[in-house]
Amino acid sequence: MGYWLRHTFIVIFVLLFCTISNGQSHSISSQEPTSFSEFFTPSDTLNKKRFNIALTGTSLLYTGFSIGLYNTWYKQYPQSKFHLFDDWNEWNNIDKAGHLYTAYFQGVLGYKGSKWTGLSEDKAILVGALCGSIFQATVEVMDGFSENWGFSVGDMAANLAGTSAFVVQQKVWGEQRITVKVSSWPKSYPTDNISAVNGSSFTSLDARADDLFGSGFVESYLKDYNAQTIWASFNLKSLVNKDNKIPGWLNVAVGYGSENMFGGFANEWHLENDDRFVVDEIAFPRHRQYYLGLDVDLTRIKVKSQFLKSVLSILNIFKLPLPAFEYNSLGEFKVHALVR
């Protein structure tokens, strides 16, 4: 049930918006903040009021998320005994990259929210790891009891890889030198009619995309695997030598995407009347894309406002549209002025 993975982003965004802080900023004491800016600054010792706010908010949102997800989605479909489902190579594994990305940024934001409360480094890392694991595992378990899906070992492995990417860097370097990001921009699809194999009905790729990915901007951003690219963004200054003259915010990113996907495993589908449609693979070849481009680590831009640092920290989970090279599985090299 890969589409609902993206909806976790909304939950975490709301959960941590008021508690995110830049992990490299200075700290304040556990006393009550005296200004709006200080409210967003991490406490240097445990602030029980902040901790209780974070704990209560997290518990309520997790409970609400779980109950809401079950009632609005899974309850509508047949349930079964817990079982596995092999979805490896579905959507050319863009969904697996999405799982890694989501678990990673949940871990990062959970860690920063914990530092805001004044938890120690080790405890904050643990909380981040739990945030990156529990939310995702909840969805996977629900999948496991759903007759239409199943528990995906590949999805769970990607979740653990994303959480590990956060934990290992924080433990070894004390910071995130390689960040996982996403870029996505709604795509336009042809409206020309395509015929069913038996010629009895017609549809279009635009209609198929609306059915799969939704028609609105938000739905398309969250669901359209053809429009998404998952990036690993490397901060040059921190990885090469912190004493060099490379701007601290400059990153180089490698990305993975795919295009012309109109079905999980193949570009064919059936309508409710059992009419079968097959996409012309010559006109719309299903292929993978590999990118190399520039990026910016927004958390390393020097600003004085703690609130602005918090905003930049949240926005840093998105890859900025900047120039990039592309090589794809069709054997093509391309240069993009902007990769969105």
Strand order of the largest sheet: 1-4-5-8-9-10
Helix content: 40-55%
- The number of helical elements comes to 10
Query: Number of folding domains?
Result: 2
Strand and helix order: HHHHHHEEEHHEHEEEEHEE
- Residue ranges: pLDDT <50 for 5 or more in a row? 2-30
Span of the ends, CA to CA: 25 Å
CA radius of gyration: 22 Å
Structural class, judged by helices and strands? alpha+beta
The tally of beta strands, per DSSP, is: 10
- Determine the mean pLDDT: 86
Largest sheet: 6 strands, antiparallel
Strand content: 15-25%
- Overall shape: globular
Written account of the structure:
The chain is globular. Strand 9 and strand 10 form a beta hairpin. Helix 3 runs antiparallel to helix 4 (94-117) and helix 5 packs antiparallel against helix 6 (153-172). It starts with a helix and ends with a strand. The chain has helices at 3-16, 36-39, 48-72, 94-117, 121-144, 153-172, 205-213, 217-223, 236-240, 306-315; strands at 178-184, 193-195, 202-204, 228-235, 250-259, 268-270, 276-278, 287-296, 322-328, 333-339. It has ten helices and ten strands. Residues 2-30 have low confidence and may be disordered. The chain folds into two domains: 1-175, no CATH class; 177-340, no CATH class. Helix content is 42%, strand content 18%. The strands form three sheets. Strands 1-4-5-8-9-10 form a six-stranded antiparallel beta sheet. The chain has a two-stranded antiparallel sheet with strand order 2-3. The chain is α+β, with helices and mostly antiparallel strands and 340 residues long.
